[in-house]
Specification:
Elements (H helix, E strand, L loop, with lengths): L5 H4 L3 H27 L5 H23 L4 H36 L5 H9 L9 H14 L9 H4 L1
Helix pairs in contact: 2-3, 2-6, 3-4, 4-5, 4-6
Length: 158
């Protein structure tokens, strides 16, 4: 879409302000989680390195979108990275939970059912922590939803 098009210029100030706030919150969240994972040395093997690398990539793409808010390519790349966040977070929840189940079964092989679930969900590895990646991914997708740099409006073609 052409940044000089009427639709691009017509994005209401409140919508633009909300979009900017979402991008700022997203940047803050990505920086925080990246710092946390690095401080925790979350770098053993590819399963642990993947979210760190994805967060680093997101930091670059977010910076690109802050610098050039009219880049359709920047928005599309951000959407791809945010979809990867959602998948990575879901996979992380499963990996954290399964690791906790394995640990709990090593400690007490008689556990099963709800008791095992409860111990695994509150285990040493935070089972729900990767959900933060899902939340950030959804936030990034909300930022890019109907973004004027990529959204084509029916009124323009009439």
């Amino acid at each position: 879409m052409n940044p000089s098009s009427p639709y691009f210029r017509a994005e209401a100030a409140p919508v633009a302000a909300i979009r900017n706030a979402i991008l700022g919150i997203l940047a803050f969240g990505v920086a925080g989680i990246l710092a946390e994972l690095l401080l925790l040395e979350h770098t053993e093997g590819r399963w642990q390195i993947f979210p760190v690398a994805l967060l680093a990539a997101a930091a670059i793409v977010i910076t690109w979108n802050i610098v050039d808010r009219q880049s359709a390519a920047g928005i599309r790349v951000l959407q791809g990275v945010m979809l990867a966040f959602v998948v990575c977070g879901a996979v992380g929840i499963v990996l954290h939970y399964n690791g906790n189940v394995e640990f709990e079964l090593e400690r007490n092989s008689d556990q099963s059912g709800l008791a095992l679930f409860w111990e695994a969900i509150k285990g040493a590895t935070p089972s729900l922590a990767p959900g933060a990646m899902v939340q950030l991914g959804l936030m990034g997708l909300a930022y890019s939803f109907r973004h004027p740099a990529v959204h084509t409006d029916q009124r323009e073609t009439e």
